[in-house]
Amino acid sequence: MSDFAVVSFNGRLGPMKFFEVGAKKTVKASFSIAINKSRRVNDGQGDDGGNWIKTVAWLPCIAWGAVAIYLKDRGKSGMPIAGHGDWKTESYEKDGKKLSFSSVNIAVIALPPDYSNAKPQIEKAVEVKEELPEEDTPF
């Protein structure tokens, strides 16, 4: 039995594991998303009558096919990530006990752009700006 609900998230990418599944060797990624949560506790401390408590919630995720390959090629633990997918709870039996596992089956993800080659372009732009004579500057 499984339940579905649409989940949208943003957080930081946790450690990833990649597998090849089935005869077609479909790529599967298993990973977690760290999501920061803050809440106020009214404990009478602090100027505003309460303190903020920061916690981290881990969202277990699974990605298949093209999304998994994209993560494998571009994803790094700790980088920002956003996306959405279906929340799925699966029940199974092991050693006579009924167990369940919940995760997000990822449909769409967004990772930050790759700026690894941006520095040489920025340095070149700075060099061009320094070559302009001061009298030609309109301000």
Can you name the CATH architecture?
Beta Barrel
Model regions low in confidence, pLDDT < 50 over at least 5 residues: 125-130
Q: What shape does the CA trace take?
A: flat
Find the count of extended strands (DSSP E, 2+ residues).
Answer: 5
Distance between the termini: 69 Å
* Annotated CATH topology: OB fold (Dihydrolipoamide Acetyltransferase, E2P)
Order of helices and strands: EEEHEEH
What is the beta-strand fraction? over 45%
CATH homolog superfamily: Nucleic acid-binding proteins
**What's the overall average pLDDT, rounded?**
80
Sheet/helix structural class: alpha+beta
Strand order of the largest sheet: 1-2-3-5-4
Number of domains: 1
Q: Biggest β-sheet, characterized?
A: 5 strands, mixed, barrel
**Helical segment count:** 2
CATH class: Mainly Beta
Rg measurement, Å:
23 Å
Helical proportion? Answer: 10-25%
Question: What does the model show?
Answer:
The N and C termini lie far apart (69 Å). The protein has one domain (4-114): Nucleic acid-binding proteins (OB fold (Dihydrolipoamide Acetyltransferase, E2P), Beta Barrel), CATH 2.40.50. Mean pLDDT is 80; it is low at 125-130. It has a 5-stranded mixed beta barrel with strand order 1-2-3-5-4. By secondary structure, the chain is an alpha+beta fold. It is flat. It has 2 helices and 5 strands. The relative contact order is 0.21. It has helices spanning 65-74, 118-131, and strands at residues 4-21, 26-41, 51-64, 80-94, 97-110.
